[in-house]
Amino acid sequence: MAAKSDYYGILGVSKDASQDEIKKAYRKQAVEWHPDKHKDNKEVAEKRFKEVNEAYQVLSDSNKRSAYDQFGHTAFSPGGMPGGFGGGQSSQQGRRGPFTYTYTSTGGGGSPFAGFDFGDPFEIFDSFFGGANPFGRAQRIPRYSISIDFMEAIEGVEKEVSIEGKKRKIKIPKGVDEGSRIRFDNFILSIDVRPHEVFERDGADIYVKVTIPYSLAVLGGETEVPTIEGDVKIRIRAGTVSGTIVRLRGKGAPRIRGRGKGDEYVRLQVAVPGKLTKEQRKVVEGMKDRGL
Length: 292
Fold this sequence. Notes:
- This protein has a five-stranded mixed sheet. The protein has a four-stranded mixed sheet with strand order 8-9-13-12.
- The model is unreliable at 81-138 (pLDDT under 50).
- Among the domains are: 143-193, Urease metallochaperone UreE, N-terminal domain (HSP40/DNAj peptide-binding domain, Sandwich); 200-274, Sandwich (HSP40/DNAj peptide-binding domain).
- The protein has helices spanning 7-11, 19-32, 42-59, 62-71, 122-130, 150-155, 214-219, 278-289; strands spanning 89-96, 99-106, 143-148, 157-163, 166-172, 181-183, 188-193, 200-202, 205-213, 221-225, 232-236, 245-248, 264-271.
- α2 packs antiparallel against α3.
- It starts with 6 loop residues before the first helix and ends with a helix.
- It is an alpha+beta fold.
């Protein structure tokens, strides 16, 4: 069996990285390796995408991260913890409707972890290191995942799905993000958000790049920029340089926990003309003569 890659290496952060650095690195990697962006090599992208999510689930939690720093990958492997926690392991995978699901459990009554759901092995350490009794028997709840569009995640959506052969409607609340988990009556749903061609997201904040004409950057004026609620006009100051960022308060995504919305950040890119007319060239040369 091939050795697992280091979680820190997967996210491209150092071992002393802050939680904010880990979160930013995760979002960057998740967007980069989303399978929908690699349709020509989807298998590789899916594998990498799962590795990125697995690394983030561990490193974003202080207890799981502490266990990983101390024991490495063996901390999350049945039989891998120091002290002889052994036992066999069985796994089940499948697809129902738009969902994919996986859950795995250990066999052998001698293991203190028997009966735990290893489809999400990190919950074992939530209980173990969080002080709950790891010798109790936990209810096994299936995990499903569903892919939704970027704007469906922003606005919320109702989906009709089939679970255990029964059709039902589920509501996904507005503001969910990549990796969000929603617990329903008898299952847990993980959200995969397909990338948007214009917008990028970091938490409740939205980022967009807008190209403006060279003349507008020099002289100033107004231009329209896209937001998740539609186009809005913004004022461009005279002398604006490429890379300038404009903040639009309250134009971001809804906060799934809490009130209000995030902000939108517009990065302005100045388009430099490739060809000039004689008149335009004279103007530019005059500017050059004046040191502009």
